[in-house]
Write a structure and sequence with these properties.
By secondary structure, the protein is mainly α. 77% of the residues lie in helices and 0% in strands.
Length: 315
């Protein structure tokens, strides 16, 4: 297991290196620069050029990248041009809301998708199966922002059960914290549950038609045990893959939802930073989210080996 873990960690370095290059250089495709935005349209070219010099924007890009990576290896992601604080501090401040939203949305997605997927697989070809398939197609195609607006209209504007927008930290109380996260988490969770339900159904169908399942049934094993003990365990690896990938995408893709519900998370931070051309924050936040996603994938790989020991023996 230790050798398997070491191999997986070593595989991360080239991935992270390529990610750092993409993250750094893609920012410069955005029109404009921080100096022009900070000084405004009325600033003279001389003053803009002077500020660019102070911010180190006049040096060649490859030197900027080398200096940036040197700072990253020392735990320094730079300083925000607009918020007058370190990027690391800014990310830590915004990480809590995004993680809370992503975790709650993932829980909702799993609670919906796995039972629904198993139900459809067991009743393959029935009206229930077709309904689940239709739900999956609907969830995959419906835009998340549209579902968010419908939820706000129904549960906040009409019924007045939940807040329209905003965020309360966990320190304000668990219920207040959840009240402000339920609608955005449902909007994210339902969309992600659709694809997860489809994968669960497909994986379960494949296993339920396997020979060892037919053998178990012929020996009189209870159907509940066949489904949950034998079939689900063997079908769980592709399901786990989608859960891991969806959690990473929930963190990376919560931008629209956080903006609609005014949640001060990493997504909203990225939107504001792009509008202000705050390069240091954009680079640091994107690199952090990419690193977090890669680490989640590593954790999923390790869980593969726990679920099926044959995986670590074959790698």
């Amino acid at each position: 297991m230790a050798i398997y873990l070491l191999k997986r960690i070593l595989h991360l370095f080239p991935v992270l290196f390529i990610l750092s290059i993409v993250v750094f250089f893609i920012i410069y495709l955005i029109p404009g620069d921080p100096a022009s935005v900070m000084l405004g349209d009325g600033a003279s070219p001389e003053i803009v050029e002077q500020l660019r010099e102070q911010m180190g924007l006049n040096t060649p890009l490859y030197l900027q990248y080398v200096h940036w990576m040197s700072d990253v290896f020392h735990g320094n992601l730079g300083n925000s041009y607009f918020m007058k604080k370190s990027v690391t501090e800014t990310i830590i401040e915004r990480l809590g809301p995004t993680l809370s939203l992503a975790i709650l949305a993932e829980i909702i997605a799993v609670m919906i998708a796995i039972p629904v997927g198993i139900f459809a697989a067991v009743r393959h070809g029935s009206a229930a199966d077709k309904t689940v398939t239709a739900f999956s197609l609907f969830g995959i195609t419906v835009p998340g922002f549209l579902l968010s607006l419908f939820l706000m209209l129904i549960f906040s504007v009409e019924l007045k059960w939940l807040p329209v927008a905003g965020y309360k930290p966990l320190s304000a109380g668990l219920w207040e914290h959840l009240r402000h996260l339920i609608l955005p988490a449902v909007a994210l969770g339902v969309v992600h549950s659709a694809f997860l339900a489809r994968i669960t159904r497909s994986s379960m169908l494949e296993i339920l038609n396997a020979g060892f399942i037919k053998t178990a049934r012929s020996k009189g094993v209870k159907e509940r045990s066949v489904i949950y003990k034998h079939a689900l365990r063997n079908a769980f690896i592709p399901i786990l893959t989608i859960i891991g990938q969806s959690f990473g995408s929930l963190i990376a893709g919560a931008t629209v939802t956080e903006t609609i519900f005014n949640i001060p998370g990493l997504g909203q931070l990225l939107v504001n930073s792009v509008q202000r051309r705050d390069y240091a924050v954009i680079q640091g936040a994107v690199l952090f989210v990419a690193f977090l996603t890669v680490m989640i994938n590593l954790l999923v790989d390790l869980l593969y080996a726990v679920i099926d020991p044959r995986i670590r023996l074959n790698r």
